[in-house]
Structure formats: structure tokens, C-alpha cells
Amino acid sequence: MRENKKQKTPVYRPGYAYKLFAIISFSLCIGFLAGMGHIEKKMEQEVQPAMATSSGKGGPAYVKANYPYVIKNEYGESFQGKKAGDWGAGTLVDIHYSDSVFARTFGNYKVTLGVWNTKQVEEKTNKLTYLIVLKNGKQYEPRSTNFFNYDKKQGIEIPSVDSRVKFENVNGYDSVGFNIEKNELKDLENAELRLVHKVTKEVIQTLPLKVLKK
């Protein structure tokens, strides 16, 4: 005789489903956080400027000359500059004067430098500034001073041509605005542009107030 086998009724265990859901959710959360961490790290690397040294791999290229720091733009023009102590190097790439009334808000005499920073832009902003010094000792303080990291896609903003231009051998650029009266422009012929420490007044770098093209 055949015995009637009782079919087992499936048992629903809600606790097991909750545990499985929790494990899956936890795994997805860990994967998401890991991915975000990787993206954040990559973004930080892109934003931070390449740290340079006066020599060796990773630093700017120098030449043996009175103006050893030479940079070149995408149109083949070369500009000569100098080292700036422990702060890197810099060279003037543009000077632009505007007689517009609105230009005086940030400085109607705009000086732009291509630079290689060996320290963070935030530290440079906090500690350094620029001065224009005339031959007779008169000084002009800036109306605005901005230090930027260099973006390879954007290049450097050049006010005299109202355009952005790409450069080689730079990892940043400085934009400084002064207010100069039109009748004072002639006095700037032999003036100097000085990078100085805000507190100690130490002169970090001195350049003639002119764009030196090689």
C-alpha cells in the first residue's frame, strides 16, 4: 500500500528576507562610498597645482640667462621672467590700461603674469602681494590681486586681447589691478613690479614693468 506523503508547506521567514536586503544594501552603500572617494581624490589632484622645485623632475624649465624663466604661448611667443625665491618663478605676459570709469573698480592698469608656484595658491594669497615702484621711490598698491591655478583647457586670461591663451611651463597665473591716472603712465617707463611679503615687506621678486619677449 502506498502511503500518502504530506506535502510540506513552504515556510515564509520574514527575518531572512530582511537580512538579505540589509546585506545587499550595505554592499551597495560601500561600493557607492568607495566610488565617491575615488572621484573626490581625482578631483583634488586636478585642482591642485603641480608642485615645483628649482630643479629636477616636476619643476619648471629654466635657461642660463639674466631672465632664466621662459614660457611660451600657443602662438609661439616666448616671455622672459625670473625666479621668485622659494615661491617659484614668474614673468609678465600682459599689461593693459583702460580709461573706462568702471575699470577702476578692480584697477584700470591690469598686469598679468604667467607663474610657476612651488607653494599653494591659498598661502600665496594670504602672504604675498605686488607693488609698482617708480624710479623716484613712489609706490602704487594694488586695487585687486588674484592668484590662480593654471587650467590647461582654459589657459590664461589676457585682457589686452580680451581672450584666453594657453601657455607652456606654467602651473598658475597672477592678475593684479592698479589704479593709474592717465597723466601718470609716462612715469611708469622705468618702473619695477615687485612681489613682496605683506607682513615682513621682504622683496621676493623684482621685474621691470614691461613685457619681455624673447
Q: In whole angstroms, how far apart are the ends?
A: 110 Å
Characterize the main sheet: 7 strands, antiparallel
**Structural classification:** alpha+beta
Poorly predicted ranges: 38-57
**Net shape:** globular
Strand order of the largest sheet: 7-11-4-3-2-1-10
Strand content: 25-35%
Which percent bin holds the helix content?
10-25%
User: So how many helices?
Assistant: 2
Radius of gyration: 29 Å
| Mean pLDDT, all residues | 84
- Based on DSSP secondary structure assignment, what is the total number of beta strands? 13
**Run of helices and strands:** HEEEEHEEEEEEEEE
Descriptive terms for the model:
214 residues; four-stranded antiparallel beta sheet; 13 strands
Question: Could you explain the architecture of this structure?
Answer:
The protein has helices at residues 14-47, 121-127, and strands at 69-73, 78-83, 88-97, 109-117, 128-133, 139-140, 144-149, 156-158, 163-165, 167-168, 172-178, 192-197, 203-208. With 214 residues, the chain is an alpha+beta fold. The strands form three sheets. It has a seven-stranded antiparallel sheet with strand order 7-11-4-3-2-1-10. A four-stranded antiparallel sheet has the order 6-5-12-13. 24% of the residues are buried.
SSE blueprint:
Layout (H helix, E strand, L loop, with lengths): L13 H34 L21 E5 L4 E6 L4 E10 L11 E9 L3 H7 E6 L5 E2 L3 E6 L6 E3 L4 E3 L1 E2 L3 E7 L13 E6 L5 E6 L6
Antiparallel strand pairs: 1-2, 1-10, 2-3, 3-4, 4-11, 5-6, 5-12, 7-11, 8-9, 12-13
Give a brief rundown of this model:
The chain is of the alpha+beta class. It has helices spanning 14-47, 121-127, and strands at residues 69-73, 78-83, 88-97, 109-117, 128-133, 139-140, 144-149, 156-158, 163-165, 167-168, 172-178, 192-197, 203-208. Mean pLDDT is 84; it is low at 38-57.
